[in-house]
Design goal:
Blueprint (H helix, E strand, L loop, with lengths): L14 H20 L24 E3 L14 H5 L5 E7 L7 E9 L8 H5 L5 E3 L14 E2 L1 H5 L14 H7 L2
Antiparallel strand pairs: 1-4, 2-3, 3-5
Length: 174
């Protein structure tokens, strides 16, 4: 480890450094007050920032063409989640062609780190990260999203159809 010794008596005082920092801050303040168009701020409620298509926001459970959930309750998303915020309770389906389905699927959004591992782990394209990111609430209990909030919320307009076709999955052995 090397130690740098400052030369000169003025370098040992704190006051010149503090005054230099205040001068730079004051310069930026005056520049931003004069040049309002150059500021990188938006008027938030009226103007919304446009994010790219790769943005990972709130979770969405996809649905099949008949409106049922695509999720097969394989637990891969919950196993792959580093924050352990996904809870799934599976049940047997009445249809003999379907092995099981989730009767409870919850995501604790306050615990989620929005990494997208659940989306990548899902073999049936059942969960996606959507473009929504605003989730205001007055209490922390409203941030546990269940099936109704994840798949059938009004912003989704009836749910998001999956791009994976059931017949193609069956032919591929998935």
């Amino acid at each position: 480890m090397s130690v740098v010794e400052r030369s000169g008596e003025l370098q040992k005082w704190y006051l010149p450094g503090i005054l230099g920092g205040l001068a730079i801050t004051g310069k930026h303040l005056i520049k931003n007050l004069i040049n309002k168009k150059g500021r990188p701020a938006i008027n938030y409620p009226e103007e919304k920032h446009e994010y790219s298509a790769r943005f990972k926001g709130n979770h969405v459970l996809t649905v099949k063409k008949d409106g049922s959930l695509r999720c097969t309750a394989c637990m891969l998303c919950a196993t792959n989640c580093p924050a352990e915020c996904i809870t799934i309770v599976a049940s047997e389906h009445t249809d003999p062609t379907v092995e099981k389905f989730p009767i409870k699927y919850e995501i604790d959004i306050l615990r989620c780190v929005f990494c997208g591992f659940c989306e990548e782990a899902c073999p049936v394209d059942a969960i996606r990260m959507g473009p929504e990111w605003q989730t205001p609430s007055l209490s922390g209990g409203q941030f546990n999203y269940g099936i109704e909030k994840l798949a059938y919320r009004p912003q989704l307009k009836g749910g998001i159809l999956s791009v994976v076709d059931d017949e193609e999955r069956h032919k591929a052995g998935i």
